[in-house]
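Build the 3D complex.
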Amino acid sequence: MKQFEVEVKVWLKPSVFDPQGHAVHGALVSLGFEGAGEVRIGKFIQMTLEAEDEQAAARQVDEMCQKVLANPVMETYAFEIRERGQ
Amino acid sequence: MRWAVVVFPGSNCDRDAEQAIRLVTGDAVDLVWHDAEDLSAYDAIVLPGGFSYGDYLRAGAIARFSPVVRAVAREAERGKPVIGICNGFQILTEAGLLPGALLANHHLQFRCEIAKLRVETNDSPFTRLYQPGEVIRIPIAHGEGRYHAEPEVLDELRRDGRVAFRYVENPNGSVDDIAGILNARRNVLGLMPHPERAVIDWMGSEDGIRMFQSIRAHVEEGQTHA
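Done.
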């Protein structure tokens, strides 16, 4: 078994209004960052995972995202997997 | 008849629901802990409001893995009435017993006030004692009540008359002013407003009474016919 470090990002789908991102965008513009475009705010999840190989780890993380880490009705996700100590 | 009010760690409207149902119907009401695996002894099931599991990750996201939610799904499949109020609605969507999802209010504020709702259908165990189109006053208290669903889901809800309640003045940015929806079989209702907080004159409204009476009438009728 190998040890992996996993980083998952979860954020609202493009079709879903993100009021937090909208509010933060307003703050950025009022601070003078005129160039700030649309802001989207999401979650960042870090974990360690033990798995046979990287493929098995990816399969598990994807299932975790589908079942609990993200709600596919309103959210989308992406993840990165790195073997520990590599 | 016998009612179950499910209690999750972090539920906080469980006792309100229990007392309201007892007051309105005179029936037996049990508070049932979230590790219960069998709800077959109950005629109606209530998932109350609150912040189950601290709303960690997403409202209702962790609660849906409680053993009791599997039991709720089983009884729903048998056709028993299941009502999810506020956090209970969020749990029902996370569990896939109702379509769509509840997101942060579009203005990011927590809204606690009496809301006017239009009863869109009385063809359900929960609304049979209301008139379609009737406007009722029921309190809301939520920060994450913005109903969201994909266009094809919304089309289906509208086509089949499964939008049970709409806000007269949308308080949270919900799509199509939706405040409560039914499942396809019409025996599962989820709504953000709190009918248990509108059952006595001093609460500011008694319009929630008929929701519990409707459920009772539905169950009693089923028992007579059985």
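Chain A has a mean pLDDT of 96.
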